[in-house]
Each structure stands twice: as C-alpha cells, then as structure tokens.
Batch of 2 targets.
Target 1
Amino acid sequence: MELGYGTQHEAFREQVCAFLRGHWPPRETDAASASPEQIRSFRRAAIDAGYLYRNIPRRYGGSEQEPDILAAQIIREEFGAVRAPTELTGQGPQMLAPTLLERGSEWQKEHFVRKAIEGEHIWCQGYSEPGAGSDLASLRTTGVLQDGEWVITGQKIWTTHWKRAQYMFALVRTEPEASKHAGISYLLLKMDQPGVEVRPLKQITGDAEFAEVFLNSARTPAEWIVGERGEGWNVSRSLLRHERNMIGSANRSAGLFRSLLRLARKTRINGRPAVEDPQIREMLASIYGYVETQRCSSYVQLTRELNSRDAGTLPMFNKITDTNIGQAVSKLAQRLLGPESILAPRGQPPGRTSGNEKWMNQFMGSLGMAIAGGTTNIQRNIIAERGLGLPRDVAAAGVEES
Ligand SMILES: Cc1cc2nc3c(=O)[nH]c(=O)nc-3n(C[C@H](O)[C@H](O)[C@H](O)COP(=O)(O)OP(=O)(O)OC[C@H]3O[C@@H](n4cnc5c(N)ncnc54)[C@H](O)[C@@H]3O)c2cc1C
C-alpha cells in the first residue's frame, strides 16, 4: 500500500489550497455564516476550477476532469479542512446523477443531471415497500405501459426527502411473468400528480423525515425508464453501490470526530475541560483508533481502485465501521452533555432551543444508519460469505440481500 501522494499530487494539493485561500470563506464572512448565494457562487467557482463534480461532463454541469482518485481525495481532504462547501448531498446528486451517467439515455442525462447536482430538482428514492426492504426484489408495486405512459400502482415506504422532493426514482414490477429479479424496471416519476399520495410517518423526535407513498395509477411517460424493461435490478445495483459509498465515507467520520473533540474541549468535568478527564480521553482514543482504521481501509480501497482491482467487500466494511463510529461518537457526546442532551431536538419555540440539537439528531440518525442502504446484519453476512468464504447463514437462507 502506497500512503504517500507523490510530488505531482502534492503540487496539486498546493493549487487546491491556493484556490481555497482565495475563495473560502467569502470575503468579510466566516464559513458558518455564509449565505446560500455565497455558497452557490463558491460551488460554481469550484466547478469552474475543476474541483467539484469532476466525473460529470461540462455539458451536464460538471467539471469534466480526467479520473484521478488521488486528486479527488486531496480535494476532499483540503475542502474538509477549511469546511468549504463540497458537492451537494442527497439522493438526487449522489445517487440518481451517477446512476443516470452510468445507465441513462442521452436525453435523461441532459434533462436531469445538471438540475440534480445543482439542487434545482429534489429527488426521493422509491425502493422499500412493506415486506420488501432487505429482500428488495420481493417488491410488488406494478407498472403497466398504457398509451405511451407507465401506470404505477402500489406502495413505497421509508421515503426520505419527501418534504421537498418533486421527483422519485422507483423500482417497479413491470414484467409479472419474469422471474423475481428480472421483472423489475427503474422508473422516474413526478411526485406532484393526482396518483401520488404522501403520508408522513411521525418519528419519536416529533419530526417526520420519512413518508409512505401510495401510488394509485400514478403516471409517467414511457421514456422515463432508466435502462431497458426488466433491467431495473441491475440499474439498482449500481445505485446501491453509490449509496454505500455515500454512507461509508472516512472523511465524514473524521469530521464527526473533530466535532466531538471540540465538544470535549468545551465541556467541563469537575471544573476542568472534559478532554483532560482520563476516562473521556480513553474513550476518545478508542474512537480515534476506529477513525484511523477506517481511513486506512479507505486507502486500501483507493489503492485497489487505482490498480483497477475490485474493492470487494471493503465498501461494506467501511459502511459498518462508519455506522459504528457514528454511534460511538453520539454516545460519548451524550455523556459529555449529560441530561441536557435529551432536550427536544427540533420544533422548539425560538429562544428555547438547547443548542444540542445537532448531537441529539446525530444520535437518532446514527441508529438509522445501521439500517439504511443495507442493514449491518446483512452486510456482515455478505462479508462473511463472499469475503471470507464462510458457509451461508442458515437463519437467513432463502432471503436475498438488498
Ligand atoms: C435512515 C433511513 C433512511 C431510509 N431512506 C429510504 C429511502 O429514502 N427510500 C427507500 O426506499 N428506503 C429507505 N429506507 C429503508 C431501508 O432501505 C430499509 O429499512 C432497509 O432496506 C431494511 O429493510 P426493512 O426496514 O424492511 O427491514 P427488514 O428487511 O424487514 O429487516 C428487519 C431485520 O431483519 C434482518 N434481516 C432481514 N433479512 C436478513 C438476512 N437475509 N440476513 C440477516 N438478517 C436479515 C435485518 O438486518 C433487520 O435487522 C431508509 C431507512 C432508514 C433507516
């Protein structure tokens, strides 16, 4: 494994740092109080300079750079170090756009990619159904082609981003005669139409991040299919890979750990900064060990990709480590904040917020990460069976992973 980036890439790092010094934070503003307009204009400048959306052609809104995994890593590191805005997050930019680039038709790329990465179109993912989560290929929502339109009937669940989403990418059974996996197509549809009914699911936080989406003869044009009829399972495979990459990022864990460290410096135990308490130090050191392990395994993944070798089960390993780090960080943050940490995270009247919303939401979110994008149980089974060659888990026999 080569850990050094080499002189050429270190020179590139200098260019990135010089760009950041010139552009971030915007003049007379600190990073935290930059306006949405300033953030948008910074992103535009970073795209023009070739630092964001590198793998997306300019005609679809990207910066169209030669693939260079080390350069991409350097950009992540340096942008992260000064907390500069990076590529937009969410299911549109991070999942749909790469999927369309890989599997979409020319008009789909032209019509949807730029708007997804600029956040003009907000997308949600219509995959899970009651009875089809881990065993996703059991999904029962149907799509029938009638007079140049897909007519879609069924139910989706756990739909995140429903509040703002104008569009959904969905897996739908269009070939009822075909076998389980071969009968599915990948369709795009508008949310704002009479056939789509959204019912929010209220969470313990009082918020409703998820919704059930009922599709009652919802309609979408025949050409809003990605890939061919019955190819949706394979299209969704590329998408799940993007989702796991999105969830399992070593940089996110490192950023989270830095926030925890700031909290430990700020909080006091027996009149001293918590970061000086021996028990807290031990816990911090243990989490830091996992953060560094994840960084190391990300480098292994990078090296494999550089050598055009399959990353195997490493992305799954990284997703599990990422989930575990998120949970460990949240638990320690709660310990540092004490009873205050359970003050209601959202929806408080002005002036009554605890200031700890971020940590409470991080805690709640960290539990969900063990489920989203493929549960930890299933990922462990795949690592065991495909990675280590262990026999199939008898308890899970007959159930497909998603
Ligand atoms: C934060 C979050 C956001 C989400 N966002 C979306 C979204 O936007 N769109 C969307 O479509 N879905 C979304 N989901 C749903 C998510 O994809 C599913 O929850 C997930 O696939 C698990 O499915 P399930 O909930 O039906 O659980 P199940 O599949 O019923 O699993 C229940 C339990 O059984 C275990 N299990 C099941 N099968 C096996 C097996 N073969 N081997 C071992 N253990 C097994 C699981 O690990 C789990 O512990 C989201 C979920 C979360 C938590």
Target 2
Amino acid sequence: MTDQIVSTLQQTLRGRVIGRNDADYDTARALYNGMIDKRPRLIARCADVADVIAAVNFGRDQGLLIAIRGGGHNGPGLGSCDDGLVIDLSMMKSVRVDPASRTVRVDAGCTSGDVDHATHAFGLAVPFGIVSTTGVAGLTLGGGTGYLTRKYGLTIDNLLEADLVLADGSFVTASKSQHSDLFWALRGGGGNFAVVTTFLFQAHPVSAVYAGPIFWEATHAEAVMRAYRDFLPTAPEELGAFVGLKTVPSVEPFPKDYWGRRACAVISSYNGPAAEGEKVMARLLESLPAPIFNWMGAVPFSAMQASFDPLFPKGLQWYWKGDFVKSLPDAAINTHIVQAAKAPSELSLMHLYPIDGAVRRVPKDATAWNTRDATWSMVIAGIDPDPSRADALKTWGRAYWKAVHPFNLEGAYVNFMMDDELEGRVQASYGENYKRLASVKAKYDPKNLFRVNQNILPAGP
Ligand SMILES: Cc1cc2nc3c(=O)[nH]c(=O)nc-3n(C[C@H](O)[C@H](O)[C@H](O)COP(=O)(O)OP(=O)(O)OC[C@H]3O[C@@H](n4cnc5c(N)ncnc54)[C@H](O)[C@@H]3O)c2cc1C
C-alpha cells in the first residue's frame, strides 16, 4: 500500500518521494529535535512550486494528514507528522539578493545561514534568529527574533511578500496590496494558511559587527541580570543583547578551569564600528565584576549568526518552554537564578531575547503577532544528547516555567512551545488578534487541511 502511494505521487513530482521502504527513510524523517520521533507515510521532497501544488492536491484528495517542513527545527516537530504526508521544502534553496532595492527573495527550504551567506556578500542582512541552521520558513511565520530585532524589528516586520500554495492547490502572492488579509495573518500566524514557496524580505546594511559572548561566574548572576535589565532600555538599538543563565561548555575554546560550571552570560551584537560598540558595552561592564571571559570583537555578522551552531548539532534532545516578559523585578531574577541552578544538563539554558525598540513601533494589529508591548521573549530549554535524560529535561523545564511564569505575561512566542501546551496557549499568545486569524483561516483553509502547526481553528459560519 505504502509503495503504491509513493509511486503514484512520484509520477507527478520532479523531486523525490520517500516512503517507509526506502533505505534513507530514517534519515529523511529525522528532525532537529531528537526527542521527536515521527513516522510519516511519505515525504515529498519538492523541487519547485509545481511539486508543491501537486503534493498539496495529492495529500488533500487522498485525505492524508499534511505537515509542512522548512528547516525541520521546530521544537515539537511540527514539520512532520505520523502516518501522513510531509511536504518537505528543504531542496528549494534559491536566494536572490537585489542590492539596488536591498531586497532578498528566499526559497522556503533555506536556513537562515543560507540567506546570511548570500546577503553578507552585499553588506546586507535580514533579521533572523541566533542559530544559522534554523529554517527561514518556520521562524518567519512564527515571528522571528534575533540580534537585529531591536533596530529592524521581527523577521515578519521585514517581510514584503510571500508566494503561497493554498489548500485548494491554487497559487497566490500575498503582500500589502494582494490578499492583504492573508499577508496580515502570515506574519505571525504560523503555517496555518498555506504552503509558502518563496519569501521576499527587506534587508538592511549589516556587515562587520562588534559581537560575541561575555560569561560571568554564576555567583555574579544577580548583579549581571540587574545591570543588563537597567542597561537595555538605555542602549542604542544597534545593540542586540540577550542575557542567559547557562553552563560554561566543556569544550575548546572555553577556559578549561571553568568547564561545566554554571554561569551567567550576555551575548551581544552591535551593528556598527567596533570602537563604538566597545563604548556602548563599557556602560554595562563598568558596574560589574570581571567576567570569566569577554570574547566580543569585530566579526562578520554571518559568522556571529553561526557561532552557536557547533554547540547545537542536529539530534539533541530539546524540551522548550516560553513566555513573553514585560519587566524583570528583582524577585523574578532571584527565581530565575534558583531554578537555573537546578539545570539537569550542561547545555540546558534560559535566554531572554529583547523584543523592544522597532518591534514596539509596529501597531499591535498591523500583523498577527500580538505581544508587541513585551520587553523580552523568554525561552527555557532543557537540552542534552542522551535520550534517557528526556524526562529530566521535561521535569526541569516545567518546574522552572511554573516558578517564573507568575512574573510574566500570559502568552508566549509560538515558536517556543512544545505540543503539550499548544492547545491552551496559542489563543492566549495571539490575544485580540486570534478572532481575525480564525476568520482568515476560515476563508483560506476552511477544512483545516494545514493543521500540523500552532493551530488556529477556522471561525464558524
Ligand atoms: C536551535 C534553535 C534556535 C532557535 N533560535 C531562534 C531564534 O533565535 N529566534 C527565533 O525566532 N526562533 C528561534 N528558534 C525557533 C524557530 O523559529 C522554530 O523552531 C521554527 O519552527 C523553525 O522553523 P523551521 O522551518 O526550521 O521548522 P519546521 O520544523 O520545518 O517547520 C515548523 C512549522 O513551520 C511551518 N512551516 C514550515 N515551513 C513552512 C512553509 N514553507 N509554509 C508554511 N508553513 C511552514 C509549519 O507549520 C511547520 O509545522 C530556534 C529553534 C532552534 C531549534
């Protein structure tokens, strides 16, 4: 049965269709998060838009559950599904930079590293996340935060248009002037509405940055977090800087004497001359004790974007919890420090990513992404290579989140949620925009064909 369905779809596709009997099925279905083990019935590795149209029509007509895969990085593995069809875009990787208009056309299978590589040659960048192997598609559709967010906004604030295949197989372009309702919903509403085949982004002048991590011993965490909290609103928007509670990794080039010791870190990227960046950072550093190390220096932005990659190869166990955070009172800082100290593994972390500055200048109802009055997007991630540690990662993440959540806002960044909380929290995260999202869903995907995502139910008649 499986073989027949694979060969039927294969006849209409230029890309490859992979089924359970194929030798590379396990490699093809593997996701970034090793905690997720989904077994799709078939994987359609689309080569172009025509393949995507064929795959959507096939999946719908066969009554298959459909998942859409970009970079495969999603925490709960929403880029795959059990027993259904995965529309895998990872082979669609073209990037075209137009230096005159400073725009970039990006195929939906690109990682942010693919785009950073292409734009860096032109002294440009699009705001993406902090790990370059992350898929542009899932990151963008959920919102997208990173080092350039304070200055240039979320990734969606830089989205100019998207080419899409709808649930009925038709192809449309969404922008401010075409299918503007769909364009509104796409910007934060996740993969609910269509399969995106290409994005068009606005890029910005970014080339060498003054960037890197600064680590302090955990005993200084309270001082560092307080100083960072007070410094951030006064810092120029050219500085993207997040604070984290982490462990010094037990690998070169980290100082051996500190391997495996709990730490507090500020990881920053200043888009401007190094001397200027140094001056800005001095304002934070002058009030603080000496760090274990300060590795800030002039680096190509594309290198900074990839700096976390070696620590986080594909296949680790990840358990995610998120929240939007408006303010960080001393009591919250203390709670963070107590909980982070119980981390079950060296890689487990808590990060607070700034979402102030340009993000706040976009009205709350201008895109689906609602919580523009928050100051940070918090992530707690339990991470370890060993599958037998999965329960320990979950237990820690849940307990940590439970302790700090009373200090935070109701919703969270949809891309930082696991599936054990998707149902209850998606609505809270979209707030007053949820109703409008449900109407757009009803118009473009009334039967909820695209439901392997942070699902928005189509509004009733
Ligand atoms: C190590 C790591 C670091 C991260 N850092 C950041 C960060 O700094 N900033 C940030 O904002 N996020 C970050 N994230 C979260 C990231 O944004 C999400 O995991 C996102 O879902 C990844 O997108 P993807 O394309 O790789 O995911 P996939 O697993 O391929 O897809 C996830 C979901 O996106 C949707 N989707 C994917 N492609 C399409 C498409 N072409 N059309 C329609 N829907 C589609 C589908 O609903 C799918 O279920 C990080 C994640 C990881 C694992």
